[in-house]
Design goal:
Strand content: under 5%
Number of helices: 3
Largest sheet: none
Number of strands: 0
Radius of gyration: 16 Å
Distance between the termini: 42 Å
Helix content: over 70%
Number of domains: 1
Shape: elongated
Structural class: mainly alpha
Length: about 90
């Protein structure tokens, strides 16, 4: 994995899990979200070992598949961060 991919992926994930920890005032929600994400990745065959399904990428579509994966990941994590942040900000008492 390239440096920018590692930083972008970890940075986006840390925002989501950080907002989840702040929102829930504990680690249960962020741990549950992380566990669900990892289970989903394993189920779809995106880990080193195939899970329930096996992802097959046809020759010549590797670049497009990687781009689609990054766009999907960033959109999903951005939506989750926005939902967690907006609900935390709305219910926060000063």
């Amino acid at each position: 994995m390239s440096w920018w991919a590692a930083i972008l992926g970890s940075g986006t994930g840390s925002l989501v899990f950080g907002f989840a920890a702040l929102r829930s005032k504990g680690l249960a929600l962020s741990t549950g979200l992380h566990t669900a994400w990892n289970f989903d990745q394993w189920t779809l065959g995106f880990k080193n070992e195939p899970g329930i399904f096996k992802t097959v990428i046809e020759h010549g579509y590797e670049g497009r598949t990687q781009l689609l994966g990054w766009v999907s990941y960033l959109c999903l994590m951005g939506l989750a961060a926005w939902l967690l942040y907006s609900s935390w900000k709305k219910n926060r008492t000063l």
